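Quick one, tokens below:
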């Protein structure tokens, strides 16, 4: 048992971890298949969004940042750029706490519709991310990383969407996000992923919990 953020937690080493490991090969294959289909079907959307970003704020259309992947191995996440160039590499919650609003004119709309997340299909294709999993944390988010490690969540590939995103997203504290990541791990499986994807579509249409 290990204390994280003042709350005693139990390290997952038993059936939950074995079930997640057993599911991983199938999950990886499905992720890559769906990523290819998504890239083929959505390439016109990619092109239009890239053009709109460049017209709105000339510069790179893609945002690249080092994030913690499976077992906290660093990888470069790809997103459509929603912030002005030179914005500090902080989490959304930290930017809000500092009173910073560094978004381009198009940025809030891209975030509300989650179109900024589309380039992560390339991360999924590379095997760095999954369609469903805990959101990839910044390497500086020690609270989140320690909590995930203690609960066994770090064994999962980070996801484009996840249980925390469909049940609160940016409205949740880091501690609550970790708890919901753990709930996802304890219930991991094809049915859970399908449900999270379905709720993701509903959440995107409603645009709640995004800043």
């Amino acid at each position: 048992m290990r204390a994280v953020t003042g709350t005693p937690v139990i390290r997952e080493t038993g059936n939950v971890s074995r079930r997640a490991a057993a599911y991983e090969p199938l999950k990886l294959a499905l992720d890559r298949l769906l990523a290819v289909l998504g890239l083929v079907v959505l390439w016109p959307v990619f092109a239009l969004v890239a053009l709109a970003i460049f017209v709105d704020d000339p510069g790179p259309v893609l945002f690249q940042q080092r994030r913690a992947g499976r077992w906290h191995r660093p990888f470069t996440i790809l997103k459509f750029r929603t912030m002005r160039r030179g914005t500090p590499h902080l989490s959304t919650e930290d930017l809000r706490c500092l009173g910073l609003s560094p978004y381009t004119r198009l940025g809030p709309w891209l975030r509300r519709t989650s179109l900024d997340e589309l380039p992560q299909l390339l991360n999924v294709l590379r095997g760095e991310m999954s369609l469903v999993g805990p959101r990839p944390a910044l390497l500086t988010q020690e609270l989140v990383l320690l909590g995930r490690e203690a609960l066994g969540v770090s064994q999962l590939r980070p996801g484009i969407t996840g249980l925390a995103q469909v049940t609160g997203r940016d409205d949740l504290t880091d501690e609550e996000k970790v708890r919901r990541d753990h709930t996802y791990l304890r219930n991991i499986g094809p049915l859970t992923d399908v449900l999270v994807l379905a709720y993701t579509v509903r959440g995107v249409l409603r645009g709640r919990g995004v800043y």
